[in-house]
Amino acid sequence: MKKIVIEGGNSLRGTVRVSGAKNAALPAIAACILTGGWHKIHQIPALRDIITIKNIMSSMGAAFHDNDDRSLSVNTENIFEYEASYDLVKTMRASILLLGPLLARLGKARISLPGGCAIGARPVNLHLKALSAMGVDMRLEHGYISAEVKRLKGANIFFDTPTVTGTENIMMAAVTADGRSVLNNAAKEPEIIDLADMLRKMGAEIKGDGTDTIIIEGVKELKPAVHTIIPDRIEAGTFMIASAMTHGDITIQNCRPDHLYAVIEKLRAVGAEIESGEDIFYIKGPETINSVDITTMPFPGFPTDLQAQFMTLMCVANGASMIEETIFENRFIHVSELERMGADITINGNQALVRGRANLLAAPVMATDLRASASLILAGLVAIDGKTEVNRIYHLDRGYEALEEKFRALGANIRREEA
Ligand code: EPZ
Questions:
Q1: For residue range 122-179, what is the model confidence (pLDDT) as tens digits?
Q2: DSSP letters spanning 258-286
Q3: What is the pTM of this model?
Q4: Nearest CA to 311 among 385, 250, 238, 232?
Q5: Which atom of ligand 1 has the smallest separation from the CA of 49?
Q6: Is 328 close to ligand 1, i.e. is its CB under 6 Å away?
Q7: What pLDDT score does 121 carry?
Q8: pLDDT tens-digit profile of 183-206?
Q9: Distance of CA 165 from the midpoint of ligand 1 (Å)
Q10: Is there a catalytic annotation at residue 255?
C-alpha cells in the first residue's frame, strides 16, 4: 500500500502537460472489438483502468501492443470469449462498455452487473432497455447480464436521462446493426464525440454526436482505425483549480478550452486570470479566492467529476458557497475527510454549504474514490502545520497519470511513500 505525502504552502509555477482522457480511451479500446485487424490509438494514458480493460479483453482473446510513441495497438481478430467476470468488473464499472461491441461482433455477451459504488447506485438499466429495443434477449442471472441476439436491429431509443457510457454502448451496438438507430436525449460529453470520431474512421455512419439526437445508419462492415484520444478535461480542470488555490501561475498544455467553458467561467468568478489558446491555458490564481456556487450538470454544465476538487477550493475561499450535486446521489464522501482537515461544510441532501476559512490543517486522510482522491491532494497543497498523508491512493491511480510527479514538477512538495 502506498500513500501520498504533501507539505503544503508552495505556489505552483511552470508548465504541465495533460494526458489523454481515461473516459475517452476506455470506449475507444472497447470499440476495437467491433472488427479485427490492427487498430492504433494514440495518447493512451498510463492508468490502472486502462490495464483493467486490457486484461479483460486479453482474457477474451484480444492482442495488445504498447508502442514506444505511447500509442496502443489493438487486434481483436481472435476474440472468442464473451464473458467479463465479477472479479474484473467490480474493480471497474466501465467494463459494461464491452456489452454493446460484443453483441455487435459475436451476438453474445455475459457481463457481471457492476453493482453500486462509492458515489451512488449507478444502475445500467438504460443500457439494457436500449439493447432490448434493438432485439437483444437479456437475462439477469447470478449477478450477470447474459445477452444474446441473432442480429442487432436499428431502433428509436429514448434515454430517460442522458447517460455517458449508456450512449457509448448503444452507439457501438448500432454501427453495424440492421438499419437506422436514433438515440434521443443522448449524452453530449466530448468523450461521445471522440468515440463517434473513432467509429467514423472505422467506417461507421454517425451524425449528431455532441447534440442530444444521434443518428446512426448501420453499415455492413468496419475496418481498423488510427485514432488520437482527446486530452483529459478533468485532469486539466484539476490543474486549473490547483493553480487557483495556490496563488499559482501555470501553463497547461494539451487541453481543449472548448471542453471546459463552464469551469473557466466559474474559475474567473473565483478571481483567477485565465488566458487560453487552441490547446493551452495560462492560469494565475487570485490573492483572495471569491466564493462561488456551482451545480453539477451533464455537459456543457459543470462536470460532476470536478465537484470534489472545486469544493476543496471553496474550503479556502472568502465567504460561503453552495455546491449542488445533481448527477450522483452520494458524491459527497470526500466531505468527512475534508472536515478532518478543518473544512467547514454542512450537507443537506444533494447540497453542501461550504464556509470558507483562511486555512486547512494538514492531517492523515483516506481517499474514497477517484475524484475524491484528487480533492484531498489539492487540500494537502494548501494545508498548513505539517504533512498531509493521503491513503488508499489506488483510487487515484485508476484515473490520474503520475499526478504527484506532475505537481512536483510544478513546485509542490509532494511524494509517494510506502504506507
Ligand atoms: C461516466 O459514468 C463517467 N465514466 C463518470 O466518470 C462520470 O462521472 C459520469 O459519466 C458522469 O459524467 C466513464 O465515462 C467511464 P452516467 P457513467 O451513465 O456513464 C443515471 C470518473 O471519475 N443512470 O452518465 O456511468 C446515473 O445513476 C467517473 O471518471 C441511470 O439511471 O455515468 C447517473 O445519475 C466516475 N441508468 C446519471 O444517469 C443508467 O442505465 C448519469 O450517469 C445509466 C445511468
A1: 789 999 999 999 999 999 988 899 999 999 999 999 999 999 999 999 999 999 999 9
A2: GG-HHHHHHHHHHT-EEEE-SSEEEEE--
A3: 0.97
A4: 238
A5: 15
A6: yes
A7: 64
A8: 999 999 999 999 999 999 999 999
A9: 6
A10: no
In b/e form, how buried is each residue of 347-384, taking b as 16+ CB within 10 angstroms?
Answer: eeebebebebeeebbbbbbbbbbbbbbbbbbbbbbbbe
Ligand 1 contact via 305 beta carbon (within 6 Å): yes
Residue 235 Cβ contacting ligand 1 at under 6 Å: no
Question: Does ligand 1 lie within 6 Å of residue 95's CB atom?
Answer: no
Nearest atom within ligand 1 for CA of residue 128: 40
How far is residue 416's CA from residue 419's CA, in Å, rounded to a whole number?
9
Ligand 1 centroid vs 298 CA: distance in angstroms? Answer: 10
Compute, in angstroms, the gap from residue 26 CA to the centroid of ligand 1: 14
* Closest to 25 (Cα-Cα) out of 411, 408, 413, 401: 401
Query: What cell was used for 410?
Result: 510544478
The DSSP secondary-structure symbol of 293 reads: -
Grid cell in block for residue 336: 468527512
Tell me the CA–centroid distance for residue 88 and ligand 1, in Å: 19
**Cα separation, 16 vs 1, whole angstroms:** 27
| ∠ CA 399-167-25, rounded to 5° | 30
Question: How high is the pLDDT of residue 90?
Answer: 84
Which pLDDT tens digit goes with each residue over 256-311?
Answer: 999 999 999 999 999 999 999 999 999 999 999 999 999 999 999 999 999 999 99
DSSP assignment of 126-184 equals HHHHHHHHTT-EEEEETTEEEEE-SS-B--EEE-SS--HHHHHHHHHHHTTSBSEEEEE
